[in-house]
Amino acid sequence: MTFEADTERVYPVPDEPATMIEATLCFPLRDVGGTEEVLLIEKRRGLGEGWYNGPGGKLEGEETPRECAVRETREEVGLEIDPADLEKAGELEFRLDGDRHTFCHVFRTRQFAGEPHPSEEAYPEWFAVDDVPYDRMWEDDRLWLPAVLEGETVVGEFRFVGGKPLDEAEFAGHDLERDVDFDAIGRSR
Ligand SMILES: Nc1ncnc2c1[nH]c(=O)n2[C@H]1C[C@H](O)[C@@H](COP(=O)(O)OP(=O)(O)OP(=O)(O)O)O1
């Protein structure tokens, strides 16, 4: 694995796109009468089918993570987002049996246009941020998503074992760092 170091911290770098999937997650937020809500999707197919997650998916072609998050959110739930309105909130590396499986860029935003609607891939639903259905999500989500929804930034590594597919593997451990300044390390793209 390659590491990028600044003065004190060490971050994994997504430098193996041929073998590792690069993906995104996007968490639209809104205030409804003083209650903070987040838009999640119930995944209707593919990895994590039947579980809740943020809209998102794999990078295509030469697109940046920001462009991917905008495209996936549009395709999955029909919301339009200006890429500049996405705030980088996290970088997550998912490892399977010791190998790097997926590197995921996490964004949040309060600026979007349109009303969410279901698609073939996803059924959208707003949840109060203190009532997120962690029992119906990836097991790692409860470790990092609360911080993202509270406006913090995170970098994490999450380890799974037991062979493919990833969503049938067993969650085995993690490392998590908070309060990462993505602008300062040039990783807010
Ligand atoms: N462990 C864990 N926790 C939380 N979120 C995720 C994981 N592993 C993951 O892969 N993910 C996220 C990362 C991505 O946003 C999705 C998986 O993307 P996927 O649906 O396979 O990508 P798409 O491009 O939408 O798929 P297709 O359209 O190609 O079918 O889960």
From TrEMBL:
Matching entries from InterPro entries are given as: 8ODP, NUDIX_hydrolase-like_dom_sf, NUDIX_hydrolase_CS, NUDIX_hydrolase_dom
Q: Which GO terms describe its biological process?
A: DNA protection
Keywords from UniProt, A to Z, are: Hydrolase, Magnesium, Metal-binding
Q: What cofactor is needed?
A: Mg(2+)
* Single annotated GO MF: dATP diphosphatase activity
Q: Is Zinc-finger a UniProt keyword of this protein?
A: no
Entry's Gene Ontology cellular component terms: cytoplasm
The protein's matches in Pfam families, at most eight in alphabetical order, are given as: NUDIX
Q: What does this protein do?
A: Oxidized purine nucleoside triphosphate hydrolase which is a prominent sanitizer of the oxidized nucleotide pool. Catalyzes the hydrolysis of 2-oxo-dATP (2-hydroxy-dATP) into 2-oxo-dAMP. Also has a significant hydrolase activity toward 2-oxo-ATP, 8-oxo-dGTP and 8-oxo-dATP. Through the hydrolysis of oxidized purine nucleoside triphosphates, prevents their incorporation into DNA and the subsequent transversions A:T to C:G and G:C to T:A. Also catalyzes the hydrolysis of methylated purine nucleoside triphosphate preventing their integration into DNA.
Family designation: Belongs to the Nudix hydrolase family.
Protein name stated in the entry: Oxidized purine nucleoside triphosphate hydrolase
- What is the organism of origin for this protein? Natronococcus amylolyticus DSM 10524
Q: What is the lineage of its organism?
A: Archaea, Methanobacteriati, Methanobacteriota, Stenosarchaea group, Halobacteria
